[in-house]
Design a protein that fits this description.
four-stranded antiparallel sheet, homodimer, 4 strands, alpha+beta, Alpha-Beta Plaits
Chain lengths: ~100, ~100
């Protein structure tokens, strides 16, 4: 399993629009065969900060995700909402194992 | 759902011991009624860095977790393995909803 954590910081006036657009993208992303999880988290003490927890079943699944219509629509919709560039970090699962994702 | 992301930086010589101790703690933690998920991730480009993704079903569940024998054993076992203090950040779930955790 390849897990990508994406740190997102949005403009204060874009918080609600970002949540709607990102829930839409997440709902479609979870139906991709290469995606085991696609969670959207909002920071409790700063509602302008979010983390996306994206769990991919293979090293090629992230590229496949970026070719989908729902990803491209989301990318374009949220581009003007960003307060700063998104930051991604890649992880491997230690626990649980792949079968539990 | 209350999701806590814990950033962990361990000493290079402690990486394997930390993985074993943390897998043990995570396996027991997932059996707690207040815990929906307890994932352990290792950073792909720096094996000394980990993230714990802890999803709690209520605001009181984190305190209950810290009273368990498995948490206390883990806390004491990993204390000398830390390269720096752990950092926790709290989040709320935007997507999926609670029922999907």
């Amino acid at each position: 399993m390849l897990i990508v954590l994406v740190q997102v910081h949005v403009k204060p006036e874009s918080v609600e629009a970002f949540k709607i657009a990102t829930h839409e993208n997440a709902s479609h992303s979870r139906l991709e065969p290469g995606i085991a999880r696609f969670d959207v988290l909002q920071q409790a003490d700063d509602p302008t900060r979010f983390v996306l927890v994206e769990a991919y079943r293979s090293s090629t699944a992230p590229a496949a995700h970026k070719e989908t219509a729902h990803y491209r629509a989301w990318r374009d919709a949220v581009e003007p909402m960003m307060a700063e560039s998104r930051r991604s970090t890649k992880y491997n699962n230690v626990s649980p194992d792949d079968a539990s994702y």
